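--- STAGE predict ---
source: upstream dedup step, 1 unique chain passed
mode: sequence only
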Amino acid sequence: MNEHDRSSLRRSADPHDDLDATDAAILRGLRRVVTAADPVPAGLVERIRFALALEDLEAEMMRLQEEPALAGVRTAEQATRTVTFESETFTIMISIRSSGEGAVRLDGWIAPAAAHRVELRLVGDRRVVMADEQGRFAYDDVPRGLLQMAVYNASGRPKSVVTPSIVV
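--- STAGE serialize ---
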């Protein structure tokens, strides 16, 4: 083993210890090129934080059912979108209707019907309403963007169900 090999073995595990000014300048330039060519999408960090914020780990995750083929198309003629979620315990249908610039109204129905607690999770906000005895609930002035719903079972089992995140 020569001196160079022994020197390599003694180096710190910190990769920055071996960088000189030229290396640092090259890395800064590379970062600028990569950032310009493939920037982080707007809102990505917030969406990741939102998705990871699932607090109730005992919740049953619902499945998003197929939407009509044109459900993602936003035109003046199509002001309402219907989304259905299913699990072993519940079916939730929500109607999403534009209620002004940048906001929607959500009307929802839960089956089997009961006075379940419904939590609407938005980026940076949470809103809670109680479904009526027929399983109906509604939210006004919901900002457009990413949302998720949690339903807390009135009968206690399972404790709660959570929808996948959707964009409205």
